[in-house]
Amino acid sequence: MPARGGSPPGSHPPRGVPPRGPSHSRKSSDPLALSVPEVRLERTAEGWRATEDDLLVWEPTLDEVLAERSALHPPALPMAQPSAVHAHREASPLVYGPISSRRFGRSLGIDLSPAGWRVCSFDCVYCELPEMESADAAPHWPSAGEIESALGRALRGAGPLDSITISGRGEPTLHPRFGAVVAAVVSEARRGRPGTPIRILTNGTRLVRTDVRRALDLLDERVVTFDASPERVDRPQRPLLLGSLVAGAALLRDVTVQSCFVVGGVSNTDVRSVETWIDVLGELRPRAVLIHSLSRPSARARVQAAPAPVLEAIAARLRVRTGLVAKVTP
Length: 330
Known about the structure:
By secondary structure, this protein is an alpha/beta fold. The chain has 2 domains: 1-7 and 36-72, no CATH class; 86-329, Alpha-Beta Barrel (TIM Barrel), CATH 3.20.20.70. The chain is 27% helix and 23% strand. The chain has helices at residues 62-72, 144-156, 178-192, 210-216, 230-233, 242-250, 271-284, 308-322, and strands spanning 23-26, 36-44, 47-52, 55-59, 86-87, 95-101, 105-111, 133-134, 163-167, 198-202, 221-225, 256-260, 262-264, 288-292, 303-305, 326-329. The strands form 4 sheets. The chain has an 8-stranded mixed β-sheet with strand order 6-7-9-10-11-12-14-16. A 4-stranded antiparallel β-sheet has the order 1-2-3-4, with no helix packed on it. Strand 3 and strand 4 (55-59) form a beta hairpin. Helix 2 (144-156) runs parallel beside helix 3, helix 6 (242-250) packs parallel to helix 7 and helix 7 crosses helix 8 (308-322).
């Protein structure tokens, strides 16, 4: 297909096709020359269409390509798009640790982010990494083979482990070959550390995708971030539809939710935010809810950790209203 055009919809025909009205033909005065069949031009919702007996070609404009993408993927769901990729240039290994995790014990981390980039569909106010910048180039994503090799090397010298955790500096499900990467991680982990749980930390914005859910179900635990007042706290690239998150998560084998509460310039510990959060969790019915706050200073100085008694009160309210398992990690 020819390269996409960048003009507004309906402005001109595709490049290389003369604008001669609804149809045109080109005939040579040389009787031995090949005749050029009549080409019919038609403007459709998909773009300019040029047709002849054995040809069907169209060249959508850029606006039409984006409209087509929005029709295939609802615009309320955060998606990784070249014009909206956020990144933080900082070198980081594919596999890091082991680290001591408050929630998962001694954990070996796997970062699926492109080398030197952080790509995420959220820009959370409590994130410990610096503010993200708009990307001006397409990042190089690590391949399944690169991640599998790095994990194999790390496992040989990692010592005892309580968890192998896919996490890192961005949203792992945004990897364009996420299914292949998860399969490689599971294969290497089962070979090198059979019995060690394999988890993922995800913001859940791509759970509506069948291929993403299929890959997630290969893992031992799916930990999905769902914070109270997500529009203010998580700052998604696009409005977050809670119904889509619930519907996608409900199709997984099971799900664990982690929720962060903060106070300060942005707070989500108020009664209205907490009650709405509980309503959604009551529908989602996760196998456990992990409640936490900041363990390290946020790169956004206007938010601070919620006090431990506030976290305990929120957990108690969740248990009373829903009967769900709620754990506070200070």
